[in-house]
Structure of Acyl-CoA reductase:
Amino acid sequence: MQLQERINAFVKLGDFLKQFSNEVIQKNDNVKYNELFFDGFKHQLKLAEEHNGWFTKENIRFSLASWVNALTTDNLNKWLAPYQINNITPKQVAIIMAGNIPLVGFHDFLSILISGHHVLVKQSSNDKHLLPYLAKYLEHVEPHFKGAIAFTQDKVKNFDAVIATGSNNTARYFEYYFKGKPSIIRNNRNSIAVLTGNETSEDLKNLSEDIFRYYGLGCRNVSKLLVPRGYKFDTFFEAIYDWHPIINKAKYANNYDYNKAVYLMSEFDMLENGFFMIKEDSSYASPIATLFYEYYDDTAVLKQKLEAEKHQIQCIVSKGFIENEIAFGATQKPQLWDYADSVDSIEFLLAI
């Protein structure tokens, strides 16, 4: 199978997903194999929502829309242009996926197949309904994928390389268990925003998308603010208020109530607005319904700190502060070439 055939298959997958990426699902009779897959995928979406309380219709739809935007001929060609991909000898590459947000492991799945390798997927139990169905669709669109895609619920074995994502503790286990294989091992990272006090209300409103999308469960979600000493949070709280209906989600509300009770009993200083709390804390990983913040006095010193601690940081959201910063509101809209942990997975796959 040639690279262009693989690209074409994923473009058709994007066309299929587009039917489900808007608030109202709308069938397109021009999409290939719809008679086989359309109703079934509607059912899988329902199962995914019922199985994982964090996978709401809105968040699943947002994830699908992101992949619809990515899986175009132009985007795929732009992503792959720097690489020499044809004439790859296929290897078996295992993926151990996280399950914090819908289809969180899809980029690795795409990267392995688009580069010409075979994939062995071990999914998280939290996100197990969507990808196997999409894999079946791919096999119909491009029969050469049959035999190149496998799923397992057991310990992965008989593979040549691995991409594994987990917590800091499981990452240490992965590093030991996979030490004899080429690997990309990902652990916990968090994203931050650096504010100067000169942000507009629109900037901060966009930032709220980085904070609240997927309930803050993604590594690209902003979990901490770095603010100049003396920063006043009034404008920030006003800008995020549009997200107040989030408190109507029971799982979110339970986390909010629990963390608020812990902070009050511990007599921690924090600010809250009825659906969200901010707390001064040096850590990067904040609990659900909470955002940590830390003051800085000198931007040069702050840049040195962020450089020293970059292994803990996925994205830095700011406006004219640092190289490779992410614009406000854009953390959950990565391009295909925005690699997790800044590790080029295509380069890795071409070298095994």
